[in-house]
UniProtKB/TrEMBL annotation:
Domain of life: Bacteria
Gene3D superfamilies in the cross-refs: 3.30.420.40
A Pfam family matched in the record: BcrAD_BadFG
Protein name: ATPase BadF/BadG/BcrA/BcrD type domain-containing protein
Organism: Gemmatimonas groenlandica
Signal sequence extent: none
Residue span, ATPase BadF/BadG/BcrA/BcrD type domain: 13-305
Length: 316
């Protein structure tokens, strides 16, 4: 028997919004997952918070339709999105979501905050996120929260997918000029972007978003795995940048990178089995000797559900 609009069971929603995709989990008050849906990215850019809110509202509606609860408004919705670490952006998105009545109670958080909820709960640890963008967060043993990176695609996000994609284009244009050695990246990138010549990169780049650049990260990894020197140099540079994020927070929150430090990874570039993750885990053995990398996947949307249940008054 399907649930109707008067069903008393409260629902909660967790939203994880990145630059490339948005994931939504619909759950009951006990934390049982009822539906999962995915859609377009909702990373915040100034003046476009309403677009992100529309995407989130549509995905929540899809999740409710999956369990035949289209007439039910969730009790709590926690939204964690890239860019919400800035108070103005977070407030603008909250206002847009509240006006769209996506839930009785709406909370907007930075994407790393909800990922931390899933990775460590209330315990200490360092979380590194590398997807379209990058950022690291840490909770110190005394409860302090610290951030490293996350300055956005124009001035930061080192070691992210977008960062890696941009640098791949710089490498192949330099190789074309003769400023750098030839690389297999040239043909691989042109094929991936369905372009005929390097000259076509100029109009492509003029319109490209960080998400577009991030689509080139798997291309770089694939070419690196064939032994290409320039692609491997890019991967090594990426790994070094990401390890610096962790080492910086290890020193800031744990006093010493040799201390016992729980570390978790999230984001597409650091998915289990990826080349960047494998090399980063190896690099941490010397850069942050005390790091113990959590093997389980971090699910930021699940962390948002955990926070939503807490706001609902459920002990988690």
């Amino acid at each position: 028997m399907s649930a109707g609009p008067l069903d008393p069971t409260p629902l909660v929603v967790g939203v994880d919004g990145g630059g490339s995709r948005t994931r939504v989990i619909l759950a009951d008050a006990a934390g049982n997952t009822l539906a999962r849906v995915e859609g377009a990215g909702t990373a915040l850019t100034p003046g476009h918070e309403g677009v992100a809110a529309d995407i989130i509202k549509s995905l929540i509606a899809d999740a409710l339709a999956t369990v035949d609860r289209t007439e039910t408004r969730p009790a709590v919705c926690v939204v964690g999105v890239a860019g919400a670490g800035q108070e103005r952006a977070a407030q603008a998105l909250w206002s847009a979501l509240a006006s769209r009545r996506v839930a009785d109670d709406v909370s907007v958080q930075a994407d790393a905050t909800i990922a931390m909820d899933d990775a460590f709960g209330d315990s200490a640890g360092v979380l590194l996120i590398s997807g379209t963008g990058s950022v690291a967060y840490s909770r110190a043993p005394d409860g302090r929260l610290e951030r490293c990176g996350g300055w956005g695609p124009n001035i930061g996000d080192e070691g992210s997918g977008a960062w890696l994609g941009r640098r791949a284009l710089s490498v192949i244009t330099a190789a074309h000029d003769g400023r750098e050695p030839d690389t297999s990246l040239t043909g691989a990138v042109l094929t991936a972007l369905e372009l005929e010549s390097l000259d076509d990169l100029i109009p492509w780049a003029a319109e490209a978003t960080p998400g577009h650049y991030a689509t080139l990260a798997p291309v770089v990894a694939k070419v690196a795995s064939t032994g290409d020197l320039r692609a491997n140099a890019l991967i090594s540079f990426c790994v070094e940048e990401l390890s610096l994020h962790i080492r910086t927070l290890a020193r800031r929150c744990f006093m010493d990178e040799r201390a016992a430090i729980p570390v978790a990874f999230a984001g597409g570039l650091l998915s289990k089995g990826s080349l960047v993750r494998k090399r980063l885990e190896q690099r941490l053995k010397s850069a942050v000797p005390g790091a113990t990398v959590r093997a389980e996947d971090v699910d930021a949307a699940r962390g948002a559900v955990r926070r939503a249940r807490r706001l609902l008054g459920v002990e988690v």
